[in-house]
Amino acid sequence: MDRFMEQVAIEASQMYVTEEGKSPFANTTIEKLPDKVLTHIFEYLSHLEICRMASVCKKWRQIAYDSKLWKNVSLRPEISGLHVGSLESLLALISVRFGPSLRYIELPIELITHTVLHELAAKCPNLTHMLLDFSTAMQLHDFSELQAFPAKLRYLCICLSEVIFMEGFMRKIYNFINGLEVLHLVGTYEKTDQEEEEIYEVINVHKLKAATPNLRVINLYGINFIDDSHIDAFSSNCIQLECLAVNFCNKVTGSTLKTLFQRSKRLKCLLMNGTNLQSEHVMAVEWDKCILQELDITATDLSTECLIDMLTRITTLKFLSAGQINGFNDSVLKAWMEAGTCKSLISLDLDSSDNLSDETLAKFITRYGANLQACILSGMSHITDQLWMTILPILKQAKILIMGCNERLSVNIHVDQLMDAIATNCSKLERLELRWDPENLRFSDKSQKAIDLLRVKCLKLRCMVLSDGRYYELVKANFERADRMTVVRNTTCCRVSPYYMLQNYNDLVFN
């Protein structure tokens, strides 16, 4: 490896020649780079790659073990590829390699012991972010001797097990986590079967809320036992709450929402995707008195009457995700427009809203689309390139666009014209997804010109997602020739989300 890198450096140096015929980099090798420069280069590598670099030579090994490169560490093999073979090895790493530089660490169940936590508390005084993964646990280690825990944590993520009760462990750490500002409790939503099984309340939320009075962001994701009483519990003690996410907690009905907004005066973000919201509970909320700016009610069963009542009373809304709702129809959009409470809207997600007509959508976007930074009109077979060609000149501020549906259409999509319109009108675009079936995409021999225009005009584009097929290969090759290797991706491994627009997006990322 060392000889290879040296040869690359020599060959590269011969490419630059002065008028005198001499290269200013003649005989330069990577070994002659200052340690500071090498350390900066290593910062662009993953920890798995850094470990490989450590085997090249003594100098690289010394640089690879610099604690500055180990500020954010994941020791979950399925995430980072790093596997620590024994507790003794981890204790040595904490003492020698991590130390005061460590800010963030992820630990799998086998490495969560009282000795490891003691060592982190003693040797890593600047540790502020921690993820503890209990999701695969069948039993916990003995924490009866746990006397210390990192006391400066601002962010804590706990991946829960379905069957292991956490109270013995939690009781030991309550006195150390009162400074928490961001809390994630992650359930096993994706692992649950359709069959009804006994549900265990594996963590005591009512005791936890008393130990965490300073929370700004609470994310309860996919936890099968979370219900309205737990939302009520947090709202009773967390007066600084700004963001509450209970996505895929299907026992939440909204019965305590009214109390939540009465207590949590700072609440600006409420994410309730896939919950079991009841219209009568939602309509009881004093929406006109709240300062809510971001709302996700995707895949809920709210009625048309409820949606009209809510959207016409929230005057500060900037972000709305309301896809997959049968009750969201033309009447809702018309009432919302007439009320004028959508003037501040910058993100709109109406994915799979089949009861909306393209005529009403066109009117809405024409009136309010000039401020939209994210527009998601995907999952609807009647929304084709014709509507997009009409509204794209209005979406000048768009950073995120998602269009198309997975099902095969009876009409074709003229993608060259669409790319040209996007490039011409949406120079601020950062993320784009086209979900149409590859067989519906029609493009010509001049497609390269349209793709070139998109690539040159939309310089901020960092992610473009397409269904796998001929057009995907064409676009991918075009961007790779321009050294933009990671921009084009396919829908099997990547999806675009409007969540990038959330003010607390960085705090809400948990895995």
Describe this entry's structure for a reader.
- The protein has 511 residues and is of the alpha/beta class.
- It has 4 domains: 2-63, no CATH class; 70-170, no CATH class; 194-344, Leucine-rich repeat, LRR (right-handed beta-alpha superhelix), CATH 3.80.10.10; 346-511, Leucine-rich repeat, LRR (right-handed beta-alpha superhelix) (Alpha-Beta Horseshoe).
- The protein is built from 20 helices and 18 strands.
- It has helices at 2-13, 35-42, 47-53, 58-64, 77-80, 87-98, 114-123, 167-173, 205-211, 228-237, 257-263, 279-283, 304-311, 330-339, 358-368, 385-391, 415-425, 447-457, 470-481, 505-508; strands spanning 72-74, 104-108, 129-133, 155-159, 182-186, 217-221, 243-245, 269-271, 294-296, 319-321, 347-349, 374-378, 400-404, 413-414, 431-434, 441-442, 463-466, 488-490.
- The strands form 2 sheets. A 16-stranded parallel β-sheet has the order 1-2-3-4-5-6-7-8-9-10-11-12-13-15-17-18.
- Helix 6 (87-98) runs parallel beside helix 7, helix 13 packs parallel to helix 14 (330-339) and helix 18 crosses helix 19.
- The radius of gyration is 26 Å and the shape is flat.
Write the layout of secondary structure elements.
Elements: H1 2-13, H2 35-42, H3 47-53, H4 58-64, E1 72-74, H5 77-80, H6 87-98, E2 104-108, H7 114-123, E3 129-133, E4 155-159, H8 167-173, E5 182-186, H9 205-211, E6 217-221, H10 228-237, E7 243-245, H11 257-263, E8 269-271, H12 279-283, E9 294-296, H13 304-311, E10 319-321, H14 330-339, E11 347-349, H15 358-368, E12 374-378, H16 385-391, E13 400-404, E14 413-414, H17 415-425, E15 431-434, E16 441-442, H18 447-457, E17 463-466, H19 470-481, E18 488-490, H20 505-508
Parallel strand pairs: 1-2, 2-3, 3-4, 4-5, 5-6, 6-7, 7-8, 8-9, 9-10, 10-11, 11-12, 12-13, 13-15, 14-16, 15-17, 17-18
Helix pairs in contact: 6-7, 9-10, 10-11, 13-14, 14-15, 17-18, 18-19
